[in-house]
Amino acid sequence: MSERIAVIEGDGIGQEVIPAAIDVLESLDLDFEFVEGEAGDAVKEATGEALPQSTYDLAADADATLFGAAGETAADVILPLRDAVDSFVNIRPAKAYPGVDAVRPETDLVFLRENTEGVYSGHEDDLSDDLSTLTRVVTTSASEKLAHFACDYVEDSDDHDDFSVVHKANVMRKTDGRFRDAVVGVAEEQGVDTDEVLMDAFATHVCLDPEQFDVIVCPNLAGDVLSDLAAGLVGGLGLLPSANIGDDNALFEPVHGTAPDIAGQGIANPTATILSAALMLDHLGYTEEADRVETAVESVLAEGPRTGDLGGDADTDEVTAAIVDRL
Amino acid sequence: MSERIAVIEGDGIGQEVIPAAIDVLESLDLDFEFVEGEAGDAVKEATGEALPQSTYDLAADADATLFGAAGETAADVILPLRDAVDSFVNIRPAKAYPGVDAVRPETDLVFLRENTEGVYSGHEDDLSDDLSTLTRVVTTSASEKLAHFACDYVEDSDDHDDFSVVHKANVMRKTDGRFRDAVVGVAEEQGVDTDEVLMDAFATHVCLDPEQFDVIVCPNLAGDVLSDLAAGLVGGLGLLPSANIGDDNALFEPVHGTAPDIAGQGIANPTATILSAALMLDHLGYTEEADRVETAVESVLAEGPRTGDLGGDADTDEVTAAIVDRL
Ligand SMILES: CC(C)[C@H](C(=O)O)[C@@H](O)C(=O)O
Ligand SMILES: CC(C)[C@H](C(=O)O)[C@@H](O)C(=O)O
Fold it and tell me: Looking at the keywords, is Oxidoreductase present (chains A, B) (predicted)?
C-alpha cells in the first residue's frame, strides 16, 4: 500500500534538513509518495498567509506529514498543522547519544506532551487598557486520552514500565488538579505505575539526576519548556525529533527552529529531522526500517562525520550520505 | 532604629535552617527584634488554618519577614505571605559557588520574577464535569512596576548592565505580549538594554551556555520553573535564597522546601536561608553586613565544613558556627 507523505520544508534550514530526511527515506525503497506543501515566512510574505489552506488540507489528507521549521510565523504554522492532523499528543524523546558532548550524558527521556489545550487554547482578551487575560483550558477527556496513549506507550515498549506525571497542581488546583486526577486515574485502571512531580521540582531534579526519570506525561506548556530543557541537557536542539500523533494522522518535525544564523549554507545538522522521519516510519508500521535509521544515525553521531554544532566540519550532505551509507 | 523581623520557621527543615540564620544575624549585633509566627502543616493540623491571621498580620506589620518552608500547605502559606508583604517581585539569584559540584559551574544569574499575577491569579472554575478553566491575568501596571524595579536593579549594580526579558508571547500573544511590551517599553525609557528570549529557548540555552545570560525578567510561572532549573545547574536547591520585595515590606525565604527525608536530624544545609538573611540585610540597608555574610558563606562553601547534600558530613550547627566564625 502506498503511503502519501506531505512534505513541508518551511523556512531557513527547514529547506536543508527536510531534503536530507527525504534522501534517507528514499534510500529505503518503500512505496512512499511525497507531496510538497508550502508554509512559513516566505509564503506569508508572498501570499499574506503563513499556512495556506491548501497546505493545511494536504497535511489533513496525507497519511503522515514531515515538517521542517518556520521562522517568525512558527506559531501560525505549527499550531494549525497540529490541529490539521488532530494531534492529541506530542512525543518528544530526548536522549544523549554517545559521541555527542552532552551536559548530562545519562539523559534518556521521552516527553508525552498534551497537544491541544492548556495555555495553547487560544482564548485571550484585552479587557481594558491595562489588563489582558488568557483562559487556560483543561478537560478530563483530553487528559484521559493522553493518559491512555501513555499507558499503551509504556506497555508496548521494552524500555519503559511507568511514567511520571508532571504538573503544577499546587497552584493550578482545578485545571492541573483535573489533569493529574484524570491521568493518574487512567493509569490506575490500566495498572501502570506513576509518580507525580511538580513542574518546578522536575526542572531542578532533571538537571541534578536525569536518570531518575524516564517517560514524562505533562500539560502542553510544561511539555514545551521541559523538553527544551532536556534538549539542553543532551547537547542541543539539533538532535531532537518529535511526533504529533492523532487518531488517523500524524505530523513529524524536528524540535529546532529555522536557525537563521546558518541557514542557506548547507551546514545544518539533519539529525533531528532524520530521527523525526524514523519516528514516522515507526508510526506507519515500518518498525524495522525505523530501527535501521536510528541505528545508522547513532553510529554516525558516534563516529562522525559531524556538523559544526557538534564540533565537526562536515556539511549536511556529508552527514546525510554517511547515514544512508550505513543503512 | 530597631527593626522588627517576623520569623516563621514553618515545617520540616524550616525549623532547623531558620534558627541557623537567626544565629548568624544575632552574631552581627544589630538592633533587630525577632518576633515568631506559626504557619504550615503542623499549624493546620492543630488549628485548621495553614496561615493563621495573626501570622499574616505579623508579616504585614513587620519591617521584614524571614520564612523557612511549609510542607503540603506550601502554597497556602507562601502565596498569602507574599501578598501580606505586598510583594511585586521575587528576586532569585542562582550562582554556582566555588567548591560546590555544579552541573554548570559558570552559572551566575538573577531572576526577577513577577510575583502577583499570571497563572497565580487564583481564578479557576470547574465549568462542567469535563472542563476546568484558569484565567491567566497580565496587567501593564504590574509589568511596568516589575520593569522599573529591574531597571533600577541593573543601574544600581556594578555587576549588571542589562537584562533579558523571557516570555512566551508567540503563543500567549495578548497576555505575554502585554508583559513584553510593558517591560521593553520601560527599559527603553530608562535607557536600559534588553534582549528577548522565548521561555522554551531559554530552557535549552541556559543549559548549553549559562554565561550568555545575566539578569532575567519574567512572568510568575516562568520565574518559578526557570529559577528552579537554574538551581539544578548550580548544584541544588540547598543554596538558593530569595527575596519577595514590596514597596514598604519584604519577605525572605530559601527556594527549597521542607526536605521531609532529612528533617529533624539537624543535618540540613542552612546556606540558602543564611543567604536569604543576607538579602534581607541588604534590603534593610545593612549592605556592609550583607556582604560580610555572603563572603563568609562563600568561604565556608569553598573550604568546608559542608553538609551531606554537598558531599560533606557536617551538621547544620557546625556549618552555621563556621560561617559565624568567619564573619
Ligand atoms: C513555535 C511554538 C508555537 C511551538 C510551541 O510552543 O509548541 C514550539 O516551541 C514547539 O515546541 O514546537
Ligand atoms: C509552593 C509554591 C506555591 C511556590 C510557587 O510556585 O511560587 C514555590 O514553588 C516557589 O517557587 O516559591
Answer: yes
Geometric angle at alpha carbon B68, from B65 and B74, rounded to 5°: 105
What's B211-224 look like in SS3?
Answer: HHCCEEEECHHHHH
Question: In this structure, what CATH number is given to the domain that contains residue A286?
Answer: 3.40.718.10
- For residues A40 and A82, membership in a common domain is answered with yes
Measured between CB atoms, does B137 come within 8 Å of chain A?
yes
Q: What is the pTM of this model?
A: 0.97
Number of domains in chain B: 2
* Same-domain pairing of B262 and B304: yes
Select the residue from A176, A228, A242, A310 to test the B interface by mutation, using most B Cβ atoms within 10 A. A228
Q: Whose CA is nearest to atom 3 of ligand 1?
A: A75
Q: What is the pLDDT along chain B (327 residues), one digit of tens a residue?
A: 699 999 999 999 999 999 999 999 999 999 999 999 999 999 999 999 999 999 999 999 999 999 999 999 999 999 999 999 999 999 999 999 998 999 999 999 999 999 999 999 989 999 999 999 999 999 999 999 999 999 999 999 989 999 999 999 999 999 999 999 999 999 999 999 999 999 999 999 999 999 999 999 999 999 999 999 999 999 888 899 999 999 999 999 999 999 999 999 999 999 999 999 999 999 999 999 999 999 999 999 999 999 999 999 999 999 999 999 999
Q: Are residues B250 and B201 in the same domain?
A: no
Q: Are B133 and A133 inside 8 Å of each other by CB?
A: no
A225 and A136, same domain (yes or no): yes
3-state secondary structure B24-91: HHHCCCCCEEEEEECCCHHHHHHHCCCCCHHHHHHHHHCCEEEEEECCCCHHHHHHHHHHHCCEEEEE
From B181, B212, B234, the end of a domain falls on B234
Residue A276 · residue A242 · CB < 8 Å: yes
Q: Give the structural domain span for A6.
A: 1-90+240-326
Domain presence at residue A97: no
Residue B295, C-alpha cell as written in the block: 563572603
- Domain assignment of residue A304, yes or no: yes
